Amino acid sequence: MKRSGVPKLERWSGLAPYAAAPEDSLGRRHPETESATRTVFQRDRDRIVHSTAFRRLEYKTQVFVNHEGDLFRTRLTHSLEVAQIARSIARNLELNEDLVEAISLAHDLGHTPFGHAGQDALNRCMKAHGGFEHNLQSLRVVDQLEERYAAFDGLNLCFETREGVLKHCSLKNARLLGDVGERFLLRQQPSLEAQLANLADEIAYNNHDIDDGLRSGLLSLDQMMEIELFAHHASDVRQAYPKLGDRRLILETIRRMINFLIVDVIETSRARIKNAAPESLAAVRRSPPLIAFSTSVRAEADALKRFLRNNLYRHFQVQRMTTKAQRIVTDLFGAFAADPGLLPPDHQARVVKDQARAIADYIAGMTDRYAMREHRRLFAVDDL
Ligand code: MG
Fold first, then answer.
1. What is the 8-class DSSP label of residue 158?
2. C-alpha 158 to ligand 1 mean position (Å)
3. What is the pLDDT of residues 269-300, one digit of tens each?
4. What pLDDT shows up at residue 11?
5. What percent of the chain is modeled with pLDDT above 90?
6. What's the confidence (pLDDT) of residue 81?
7. Bridge-partner residues for 28, per DSSP?
8. Ligand 1 mean position to 240 CA, how many Å?
9. What is the per-residue pLDDT for 13?
10. Which pLDDT score is estimated for 221?
């Protein structure tokens, strides 16, 4: 691929040769005059923050539905935590903080209402029409669905930000996606910034889901002590502060866990980078994945993930929400598919091109409460 001819801005000191350099960006889908005051990646991050899809994240479920409590994570606060963790690590590895922040803030833009329950239901509805996958949808949001610029649809982000948003992808879809799909066909890696945003996502949700799980009472402290990663840090805290109340013990433990995981990623990745010695982003693409946990921490993180899946994500109270959410999404899809005339006018215009996809885009864009309201508007007989 060719370089885009992006104007050369001053490179911030401390950017390693294997980092993504803004002046070497592979460019935007629609050529634009670049900013004199911001690098292309800073500009991408700013476009994401100003997007409609980003604001909607505030009212989309991470694990707990938004109205269940004011203190639980939402997709928005989750994305901010991912960006914070990713930036910390990026600075230590001399990676591009702006790019890693842009990818982190955009990574969940395609999420449906009601978290994974919503996505699974929408995927089932879309089975005969190419399926639905939130990660692909995030790319669709930034490439096509945002409508705010006069000259083009979408946010017209740089290639490097877009490839970071597309974390994974089937070979079938990769063939349809052009430039950002190529690496899946070539079995190459994305930038280190993209690899890092992916791992920061995992660090963020593993830790904040423990916090939310304990806060909600669906998980207990005794239960958590079965998990090595948690127990180890909790015991340290208890020993140092024997009189500490449970709430602060939990928060202090989680803060130490996040730090422990960040330090492990920095040390492991630094050693891997040193070993592979990539001299450029092009060399990074050809190398094996270089941003990683150490083997032992990977095993501990996997054990924690399994624990959360079995005890929190499949908890009967979460399951009740899941079932209800799936019904709402399935009902909405069915109603719009039976009569696309029920769609708001701007979405009806898209129906001409691909009816099922237009419906999926509309539903995926909904916040939790908007979806519930729309369900009431369409199905509640006492609400004509
Ligand atoms: Mg995420």
1. B
2. 21
3. 999 999 999 999 999 999 999 999 999 999 99
4. 47
5. 84
6. 97
7. 158
8. 33
9. 56
10. 96
Residue-wise pLDDT tens digits, 301-317? 999 999 999 999 889 98
**Please, are residues 281 and 24 in contact by the beta-carbon 8 Å criterion?**
yes
Between the CA of 57 and the centroid of ligand 1 the distance, in Å, is 11
Cα(242) to ligand 1 centroid in Å equals 35
Cα–ligand 1 centroid distance for 195 (angstroms): 13
Confidence of residue 65 (pLDDT cuts 50, 70, 90): low
- Looking at the predicted structure, is the pLDDT value of residue 116 above 90? no
What per-residue confidence (pLDDT) applies to 7? Answer: 60
- Structural domain boundaries of the chain? 36-318, 319-379
Q: How far is the centre of ligand 1, averaged over its atoms, from the C-alpha of 353 (Å)? A: 30
- Reference 27, options 179, 151, 171; nearest CA is 179
| Residue 175 CA to ligand 1 centre (angstroms) | 25
Q: Which residue has the tokens 């190529």?
A: 182
Distance (angstroms) between ligand 1 centre and the Cα of 107 equals: 6
Q: What is the pLDDT of residue 3?
A: 62
- The pLDDT-based confidence of 14 (bands split at 50, 70, 90) is confident
Q: For position 70, what pLDDT does the model report?
A: 76
Could you tell me the distance, in angstroms and rounded to a whole number, from the CA of residue 79 to the centre of ligand 1? 6
Residue type for position 297? V
Which tokens go with 212? 């939310």
CA of 198 to the centre of ligand 1 (A): 8
CA of 334 to the centre of ligand 1 (A): 28
| Helical H segments across the chain, by residue range | 40-49, 52-56, 75-92, 97-106, 115-125, 134-140, 159-165, 171-176, 182-186, 192-216, 221-224, 228-240, 246-276, 281-286, 295-308, 316-338, 345-351, 355-365, 368-379
Closest of 195, 198, 200, 214 to residue 307, by C-alpha: 214
> Which pLDDT belongs to residue 205?
95
Q: Measure 201 CA to ligand 1 centroid, in angstroms.
A: 5
Q: Is the dihedral of CA 288, 256, 107, 90 positive or negative?
A: negative
Q: Ligand 1 centre from 333 Cα, in Å?
A: 25
Question: Has domain 36-318 been given CATH number 1.10.3210.10?
Answer: yes
Chain centre to alpha carbon of residue 132: 16
